[in-house]
Amino acid sequence: QVQLVESGGGLVQPGGSLRLSCAASGFTLDYKAIGWFRQAPGKEREGVSCISSSDGRTYYADSAKGRFTISRDNAKNTVYLQMNSLKPEDTAVYYCAASTLCKNYADEYDYWGQGTQVTVSS
C-alpha cells in the first residue's frame, strides 16, 4: 500500500525554523518526484517546492526561494523541507505528494500525505 506521512509541523515564532519530513512506504522514493504543497484556510492549495527523482533537481515557489530547502534521503525513503525565516503568511497545512516528474499543479500528483499543520505566530 502506497503511503506518504508528513511530520514536523508545529507552532513557531516569526523568524523561526521547522523541518518537515515526508516518509514513504509501499514504494521507493528514488523513482518519484516529491512535491511539497500548502493550503491556508480559504485559499487554494499551492506548490512550495519539488525535488526530481532522476537528477535531484530542485524547484521552489518565489515565496520559498532563499528560505526553504528541499532534500531527500533515499536510504531513509524520506524527503525533507527545511523552512527558515518563517513568516505568519507561511501558516498552512503542508502536504507532500508523489509523481513521476515535478509538475506545477496539485492534480497532477498521484499520491498524497495527510498533511501537517504549520503555524507561525508570536
Briefly summarize what is shown.
This protein has no helices and eleven strands. Strands 2, 4, 5, 6, 9, 10 and 11 form a seven-stranded mixed β-sheet that branches.
Question: What keyword list fits this structure?
Answer:
7-stranded mixed beta sheet; 4-stranded antiparallel beta sheet; 11 strands; 0% helix
Structure description:
The chain has 122 residues and is mainly β. It has no helices and eleven strands. The chain has strands spanning 3-7, 10-12, 18-25, 33-39, 46-51, 58-60, 68-73, 78-83, 92-99, 111-112, 116-120. Strands 2, 4, 5, 6, 9, 10 and 11 form a seven-stranded mixed sheet that branches. The chain starts with a strand and ends with a strand.
Note the overall shape.
globular
Helix content: under 10%
How confident overall, as mean pLDDT? Answer: 95
Structural class by sheet pairing and helices: mainly beta
Task: Give the beta-strand count.
Answer: 11
Q: Report the radius of gyration as a whole number of Å.
A: 13 Å
Question: Largest sheet at a glance?
Answer: 7 strands, mixed
Unreliable residue runs: none
End-to-end distance: 40 Å
Number of separate helices: 0
Layout of helices and strands, plus pairs?
Blueprint: E1 3-7, E2 10-12, E3 18-25, E4 33-39, E5 46-51, E6 58-60, E7 68-73, E8 78-83, E9 92-99, E10 111-112, E11 116-120
